[in-house]
Amino acid sequence: MTDTFSKMHPFVNLLFFIGCIGFSMFIMQPVCLVISLLCAAFSAAYFCGKKAALFGVKFLLPTMLFIILINPLFNHRGATIICYLPWGNPFTLESLVYGCVTAAMLCAVALWFLSFNRVMTSDKLVYLFGRIAPSLSLVLAMALRFVPRFTQQFREVRIAQKQLYSGKKSLSAKLRSAFGVFSVMISRSMENAIDTSDAMKSRGYGLKGRTAYSLYRFRQNDGVVLGAMVSELACLFVILFCGKISYRYFPSIRGEITDVFSIVFYAVYALFLLTPLIINVREGIRWKRSRSII
Amino acid sequence: MKSFFKKYYHFMIAGVFTLAILAVAFISGGNIQQAKNAVESKPAEYYHEQITEFSSTVPASTVVSSTANEAQTAESTASTKATESVPTTAPATTSSTVPSTTVKPKTTQPAAVSTQPATQKPTQSTTAPRQTVSKTGESKKTSSQPAIDPTTKPKAQTTTKPKNDPVKTTVPTPTKSQEKKDKALHCTISISCGTVLNNMDKLDDDLLDIIPSDGKILSEVSVEFKSGESVFDVLKRVCADKKIHMEFSYNSVYDSAYIEGINNLYEFDCGANSGWMYKVNGWVPNYGCSKYSLKDGDVIEWVYTCNLGYDVGGGKVN
Fold it and tell me: Quick one: A55 and A121 in the same domain?
């Protein structure tokens, strides 16, 4: 597996993720959502492999089902009444469909973030924002790093505690030990934060003339990809602001999904969302070919 | 399975704990509400008994909204009884709580001198010129009510506003406790959103095709109902029968259902002051539709207002 996309200039990566997550969040048109969901799944599978599949089955599927079930129970809008709920409000087709759409949207965004975490490492964020807003980028990097680090250290502390105080325990003792682990983790994570900021300060972080840990150069390749992405985004925005991609769910489902503008939009959208995959697959093919020649 | 339980022990305990807290909050919250209602209902009942002695023909118009007011009214009514025989001469500046009416046609002053106490204070009619008649809708129809001497309870009067009372038909009676009679009762119900037609600019474009061209979502139909049923019960049944979309929510503060939307036309859909209101026999009650127990021959109109009820004959003043 080659990962050329991750090695490109961080700005290209960031623009891609801002674009795809933003579009996934705000376009509630069903076809666009399906495209986004599929592309997000492909990307997550490519970047994270097995982990993505596990995440999808363990976390996303239950969430999706939950949202699909819960939405019609609380949202009663919609012209097509299927039946009446026990407490008297209508159960409508529109709210059911809207639940599905919302679930797809959330899943797509979650999957995009899976790839995001893999590609946008904290050193890239610090590289991008370290000069403009040093403290903000440090906080951002620390915050993004916080959850995975917390879970890892939580596991460590729990194992240590288990080894120290083994044996059968009553319910209250177990609860007490769980609270103990939690309080240990709180103080540990605070200490981590202070350590990090102290270390960064002593290295002169944020001072004038400091360079970042990673050095990225804006190459011609980056320029080509950036230009392609910008033109795709411009095309998408033009179609969006013309109001061609509108779809409504309440009070009745209505929207055009097969006219020319929509089809152009789908094509450009899919092209944009598949940018990292296209780059990586193309690079892989090239690599293979050049190797076979030798 | 066992190992699974063992593994996720903490999570389960945390979940149960959270649920328990939520359950306690839910139940105790409900209890508090009930207790409040119990307290509230007492003075209302008391007041009701007091009032019916005098006013048998007071039409149901509006309701006293808060407990404090009810208690106060009851108090002042009681005080009237006690002070009836004491003639006073001090000027009355505020209007009385129970509208003192039956103005004799011959009296020149706008003073509200009622039949009963008038005999006892003939001098007052000349010296107390500023006793105002409360101009609420019911005042015309009431008869033989005692005038309240406003001066005896100045404190109560300054705070009480001229208001109508929940007498007779409109006394909040829980539907369940009513005996169900088999006799067929009828009322007519209609649902209209005619005011939206005058405010099309405020309406969301998506909703254009659900607004009927004449504004009538349901033209007047006669429906049967059982004794003790409220306006809400009838609306719910009619909407289910006629396949009209209707969403409501229960409001525990007013102990009544609140109609959020009918036919997918919701509150706030036509401007910030819009929503559904109901009228019975042309009058807009200022309490919830679950509280109105229907009488035979009532005419229910559900109307959509775009301006807090002023455009459909309701509003604050009423």
Answer: yes
